[in-house]
Write a structure and sequence with these properties.
Strand content of chain A: 5-15%
Largest interface: A-B, 39 and 39 residues
Radius of gyration of chain A: 20 Å
Structural class of chain A: alpha/beta
Oligomer: homodimer
Order of helices and strands of chain A: EEHEHHEHEHHEEEEHHHHHHHHH
Largest sheet of chain A: 6 strands, parallel
């Protein structure tokens, strides 16, 4: 096992009818900004529950945080925070709303002129407004970590930061808020959770069997529970299990003492920035390619994955082929296309993405050995 | 899945050569009290590493915290804390030293005359001195939770509290500190970790498959790694894996949304208080009896345990019999006796323990259905 640090102070309140608890979690004197996305919280009752719980409190609103939250949108929120003296942020939504709100929290406390700095160098984040979340779209794990991914649509950039200052103080996870999720968002979130686990699991073996078991537990549970949600969107337990899987996929737990990959995410971010494909879709395209291309380096873990997650026993290459095929099949069963062509992304995306990552001097993968040539090869496998 | 809250702010620093990091984790101006047990830390180099890391700092010492830390011993430490103006506690040892130190931390801030109150009513703990730990004996999980078990030898009582105020600020987990552990302590710690997981796993099914997988992962890893340590006490990875298993066994994680049992612990505490048997030994005696006696209520999980942990497939009672036998065999393979007779505890212990628990109006188990008669029956199975 590798040496590691683990720290995660987010308080989780999980279960049905838990939204009213925000009343006791947000200081009574706080000037709260409620942040949200396209307005689904106004249709599914979450907004009403929040407003009711905060009755009599000072609450302002900032809606319209888009999927892949835009830097310029966030800056507008920062201006409003400053103008109105907001001192607590409450994000209601999925990973995009929460990520955007984390950036707003950090940028509001940043005194230099250009907060884009914070995405180029997270150590510049030395303070942030306190924030809490009401999660309505499981997938990214942002509700229980200090990370944030921000896009700058004007320059087609998509960057991230990680900071101890931007952990949510609390996150409310009420599975019932996900009953009315559009199928596409559910599918994207499930793929995101699944691939995030693979990024931290499918690397080289460092003799960390407990963490492997944890990762396999999440993968097995996602595979078992997702079809139940597809069959009955109001299946509470299945929704709850998927939600808890997604949180565990990226709260730092399964990563303890393990090498990590993240090549699929880095390549996927470029596809999203360039072609507007959903985050989950981009991962469903790229991950099978990384598994295929890196099958030599990842052999031992791929065989373990094949056996423990898909029940494919053996030491031969066909086990790995089948495990990759099963993975792709799982994504497709959720309705998520796994090929560039499914989204009409041209084959020329391969050299273009490779060039953009090279420009940023990015060497990807757990061995930092995936460079320009390898990125191009990986995407060429996904036409 | 049941509704749940999860909160755990302890920072974990895991791996070899991590003790020097306490330098940056303890405020420079702090008046530190280093607490420890019988003095093994002076023989295994841990004491020297700590003193070296805190060179130039204000450090006082309090040694001699015994296994099953005694209330009167802790009160002496509290008096020293107050006399010397100590404002940070650093516990170096296993669960007993850490538990004792948590109680000292809470009692030092308690203004009423009798701190025993805190063990009778944990809600009276409204503040505590900050504390950190250097773990040298994995097993109890105390390094990453707010719980503490304290004994009052003068009245043969053993009680516990749980509080958010007594989470360690940080815990250093360096597996190398466990290389020289006496075999008996290693065995006790491993049994303790194993049984703690069973207390949170072997209950009734609430459709929480992820938490089940996590628990099974810990059990499988303990079974796989313990023999490696027995074969080579300096096997770093095996030591590291056991250490991380034990922390995960009681940091709240696997308990999320699950019913919990804890009957074996409650009964075992009485055996320790009355007959001086080690904590791990008491659990090895009691747990197989609880499994046997409660096999009806726990049937579904016992069958799942048999299959996933011991590879025993089937729906019949013999699977459960074999799983209980395997559990007992595992404890015995570590050199831990599993019968009252192994420790010359008389059969009369059964009614005596049952009467003591009844006196405290304790109804045990996940259904609160294990009363006087059942406790007596369980112990009668263990002669």
């Amino acid at each position: 096992m590798l040496n590691f640090n683990f720290y995660n102070p987010t308080k989780i309140i999980f279960g049905k009818d838990t939204i009213p608890k925000i009343k006791n979690l947000i200081p009574e004197s706080a000037k709260v900004m409620l942040t949200y996305g396209g307005g689904s919280i106004k249709r599914n009752g979450v907004y009403d529950q929040i407003i009711h719980a905060l009755d009599g409190r000072h609450v302002v609103e900032f809606g319209g945080i888009e999927p892949n939250p835009d830097y310029d949108t966030c800056l507008k929120a920062v201006a409003q925070v400053k103008a109105e003296g907001v001192d607590f942020l409450l994000a209601a939504g999925g990973g995009s709303v929460i990520d955007g709100t984390k950036f707003i929290a950090a940028a509001a406390k940043y005194t230099e002129p250009d907060p884009w700095d914070l995405l180029l160098n997270a150590s510049l984040i030395r303070d942030a407004l306190p924030l809490g979340t009401v999660l309505t779209l499981p997938g990214t794990g942002s509700e229980m970590n200090g990370g944030s991914v921000i896009s700058r649509h004007s320059t087609t950039e998509k960057l991230f930061f990680l900071s101890d200052h931007t952990f949510p103080r609390f996150s409310i996870l009420d599975p019932e808020t996900t009953f009315t999720l559009p199928a596409r968002q559910f599918a994207n979130g499930t793929v995101d959770a699944f691939v995030q686990v693979l990024e931290q699991y499918l690397t080289y073996d460092v003799d960390a069997p407990l963490q492997d078991r944890f990762s396999e537990g999440i993968l097995l549970t996602l595979i078992q529970e997702a079809p139940k949600v597809e069959a009955d969107p109001r299946n509470y337990n299945a929704r709850a299990n998927i939600m808890w899987c997604a949180t565990n996929g990226l709260n730092g737990w399964i990563a303890c003492g393990q090498p990590q990959d993240w090549a699929s995410h880095m390549i996927g971010h470029e596809l999203t920035a360039l072609y507007g494909v959903d985050h989950g879709q981009s991962l469903a395209i790229v991950m099978p390619g990384v598994m295929q291309h890196q099958r030599g380096q990842k052999r031992k873990k791929l065989l373990q994955y094949a056996e423990r997650v898909w029940g494919l026993r053996g030491e031969d290459e066909s086990c790995i082929d089948q495990a990759i095929a099963k993975t792709e099949e799982f994504f497709r069963s959720l309705g998520v296309g796994t090929r560039l062509a499914d989204y009409r992304i041209p084959a020329e995306s391969a050299p273009l993405v490779a060039a953009r990552l090279t420009e940023r001097k990015m060497l990807l993968g757990e061995h930092q050995a995936i460079g320009r040539k390898e990125v191009e090869q990986i995407l060429s496998l996904r036409t």
